[in-house]
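New to this. Please check both lines:
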Amino acid sequence: MLDNLIERIRAAHAEGSPLVIQGGGSKTFYGNADEGEVLSTRALAGVVDYQAKELVLTARAGTPLAEIEALLAEQNQMLAFEPPHFDGPATLGGCIAAGLSGPRRPYAGAARDFVLGVRMIDGTGQ
């Protein structure tokens, strides 16, 4: 799946055509209107690693927030920044990309404050 995304990004870059990176689409109302072909990250889903005692979780961009929150709840843990889900299947990638945090942001910090590292594909497919 990752190879398909990279190929689509490289083709769009070569053609100069815009892409709309989208996971669950729960924040499509937010900001300016999007223009371009939708490139879904939903297939890039799943928790890669979870170390409950270390409070560290590694997940792919298309992972639904509900899945992450359910996994954390099993260990009596939660996402401290309480990301909004709106009316859709919100994903981790969308949460971080939009930079939206819930009502605890002033006290617990923003979503970006909890990101320890990122591996990503740039606009040229690298």
Notes: Helices lie at 2-15, 65-73, 92-98, 105-108. The domain at 2-114 is CATH 3.30.465.10 (Uridine Diphospho-n-acetylenolpyruvylglucosamine Reductase; domain 3).
